[in-house]
Amino acid sequence: MSGDVKLPAVVRADEIVLPAPDEITRLRRFTEARIGLGRAGSGLPTAAHLRFGLDHARARDAVWSGIDAGALVDALHGRGMNSCHVSSMARDRMEYLRRPDLGRRLSAEGAAALGALPPPAPGAEVVLMLGDGLSAAAVMLNGLDLIDALLPRLAAARIGVMAGVVATQARVALGDPVGAILGARLAIVLIGERPGLSAADGLGCYLTFDPRPGTLDSARNCISNIRPGGLDPATAAAKIAWLAAEALRRQLTGVGLKEASGVAVPAAGQPRVLTAE
After folding, report:
1. Which of 118, 143, 226, 237 is the least crowded, having the fewest Cβ atoms under 10 Å away?
2. Are 62 and 132 in contact (CB under 8 A)?
3. Which carries the bigger pLDDT value, residue 272 or residue 40?
């Protein structure tokens, strides 16, 4: 090793300066990250260790649990949408996790279910897909709340939803064949995100103009971490509706379309109230 290379100095435990407990409490209001956990000897305090184990179990459950597709189809139908259940070509959860490519391809049964939907209302040009993705908890806890916040905003922007599709063993790109079969101009895919160890219920939203198989991910817009502890559904719905309107007007999504709705994300602890535009 060259004599010019300097290794970083070893920091002794008694040299680490931690914020005072009151300061840590204040900072925790702004994040769910694991900060200021403290220590017991060379390890974590028992409470922090147990919380880590609980969150890890929640993350595993979110990945391996399934959504109630029938109940979600009924819920979408009850909101006035033509609705059906489709699945990808991944036959089960294990195959879904090991073969991401199959999660992007629509099964023959799914294509048939889409083909059996009633004709859309005149002028309807958007398909709304609710997919399990990597967190069933995100879909079941936050999916309908987001849709309830989004539908009035789409209606106010005169954007018609042609169908609501519930998809299982689904990756984001499954919205491409779904949208292509239905002839949608825009696909809005709401999907469970990969769980973290502080949040296992984050929902992501992807918008794709002119969806069709082979669409590059760079041609999509994404809004992520939609959940009560992250981006609340009301704020997310306002941003999604703005993006949808601009996507249809400019006929594009992805890197050429930047979110500039001007909708501010409320700071932690502030009430999250938005008015319909």
Report:
1. 118
2. no
3. 40
